[in-house]
Amino acid sequence: MKTLLIEKPKDHILLVTLNRPEVRNAINIDMMHELLNLWEGLKQNPDNIRCVVLTGTGDKAFCAGADLKARHNITLEEWRKQHNVLQKAMIAMHDCPIPIIAAVNGAAFGGGLELTLGSDFAYAAETAMFSQSEVKVGLMPGALGTQNLPRACGIRRAKELTFTGEIFSAQQALEWKIVNKVCNPQSLVYEALETAEKISENAPLAVLQAKCSLNVSQHSDIKSGYVFEVEAYNTLLPTHDRVEGIKAFNEKRKPVFHGK
Ligand code: COA
Questions:
Q1: Catalytic residue among 7, 40, 134, 175, which?
Q2: CATH number for position 151
Q3: Residue 69 CB less than 6 A away from ligand 1
Q4: One domain for residues 100 and 153
């Protein structure tokens, strides 16, 4: 891959690093395609991966949003073509059945904040900075930002952040529920990997179905959401992992899950 560094630091865990440090890991067309392929690939063939940690190269930026140099002077047609790939990548990220944790190691501006919000949850280095900055360059969020930001921090805070484009700190992101934890920059990825490991020790199909059901809760009334939850729950009953989980409890040992 040209723009993503992909490692498997532990069994079942993928560490994906946005890797264009010369432009603060900004998203160009190659990165859009590679992110799209990554999320779609994980959906079609998880290949034993049970959790993804997404971070950026260096200590300056997680992701500086769209590559504004690459977009300088491109035609409207080319812009729309590129944005279409980004849209597909964001939907594929949303539809990715595997949990995604963002480890925000520096600036998360524009599309960088949208990638943070597109993850299932995020940890941030105490030095990280955030901004929904698109209005400062004549744009608005276009990678699910107006949908995911209010779901994270509430509509009134989301409006304030989006209309002003103001920079906010990791501590504020924590207070506003945009990130779940603020970490020492040196231990950020380690802490995200530790959480990924805890997730990957659980029954994979159970985690996947729970993720689906939690996502449904964000756009359904409680009773329709509950219909979905019960269906998802029922798919787990015939699984080997459900049998193993209950058996291991009764035998007072740690269960061994195979995702079957
Ligand atoms: N697209 C393309 N290049 C970018 C970029 C982007 N979104 N963000 C930063 N870069 C480039 C800079 O132009 C600079 O390149 P140069 O050395 O050739 O001049 C290099 O990355 C370093 O940027 P710099 O601003 O010096 O780094 P910093 O660590 O001081 O600040 C940011 C990092 C992310 C806070 C800052 O670069 C920034 O505000 N970027 C723009 C973010 C933005 O508005 N995104 C929204 C897009 S809609």
A1: 134
A2: 3.90.226.10
A3: yes
A4: yes
